[in-house]
Amino acid sequence: MDRTWYVDECNRQLDDAKSYRKQDGDITSQIQDRVTTCGQHMLKDGYIDEKTQQYLIQTNVKPGRFYILPKIHKTGNLGRPIASSNDPPTERISQFVDFHINPLVASLDSHIKGTTDFLNELANRATLPNNAILVTLDVSSLYTNISRNEGIDACRCFLHTRQF
Prior knowledge:
Blueprint: H1 3-14, H2 28-44, H3 50-56, E1 65-70, E2 79-84, H4 91-106, H5 115-123, H6 148-161
């Protein structure tokens, strides 16, 4: 891979102010402080126990790292952005949320794990309804385009309306 292309593509993506916000410096310690404070409040308010709080608050945290993987199947070989999440302050919080949300998401009728699951689902159906329309989407910067508040509200709504 050409180094100049790689660096230019990374800069092109990171310059997208709609998806990314430039920081003046490393904010990892500030985020770690917020995680610690949040964990203390959650423990005090009885949402988590002490063992969970200790798990959520990491030590020896590192900032996330950005890199791209070329989309060789796309015209122009644009890069797919990756934010590496090895040891950032929020890694264990993400694992905690994922652990608790995944079983609920998997219970949805519309849940598809990925391409293989989708193809298996199609193969298991004798026919599709006559009015069925198959659609595929390619979302640009999916996670950075989800409003944080709307994402939290959607999770909250789902958690409050779920049935066991």
